[in-house]
Design a protein that fits this description.
Blueprint lengths: L1 E8 L13 E7 L9 E5 L4 E5 L6 E3 L1 E2 L5 H15 L13 H13 L2 H8 L5
Antiparallel strand pairs: 1-2, 1-3, 2-6, 3-4, 4-5
Length: about 120
């Protein structure tokens, strides 16, 4: 089954400490039924779709694309950094392809693309 979902996190200790009440959009892909012992995320209909260990150090969910939420990602990574005693500052709000575009720019400025294309298309050196 695949379905789009709006999911609310419950917060708690550990990884989700600052995420209470945060809503994230994503999609679920799963078959069958799963019993979730320590629910930590719910659909708008109240169905549990995520769980966390009692100490909050392990978290998982059915929500693919959920980490695409900049706010959720920043809060979760901020919690990890805090627990490790490290500073954290969220990155810029780039689109999902920004890193690939930067890589392409570096490769294009560093390599002889025409020569490589010639090799790839059966041309000589």
């Amino acid at each position: 089954m695949t379905r789009t979902s709006r999911v609310r996190t419950d917060g708690g200790p550990g990884l989700l400490e600052s995420c209470s009440g945060l809503t994230v959009e994503g999609y679920e892909i799963h078959a069958g039924l799963t019993e979730i012992a320590n629910p930590a995320a719910w659909t708008e209909a109240g169905e549990p779709v995520g769980a966390a260990s009692p100490d909050g150090m392990v978290f998982g969910w059915y929500v693919h694309g959920g980490f695409g939420s900049r706010e959720f990602r920043a809060r979760l990574l901020g919690n990890v950094a805090r627990m490790r005693g490290k500073p954290f500052a969220p990155g810029s709000d780039e689109g999902p392809d920004a890193a690939f575009e930067r890589l392409a720019d570096v490769l294009e400025s560093s390599l002889d693309i025409e020569r490589i294309a010639g090799w790839a298309l059966g041309g000589g050196a």
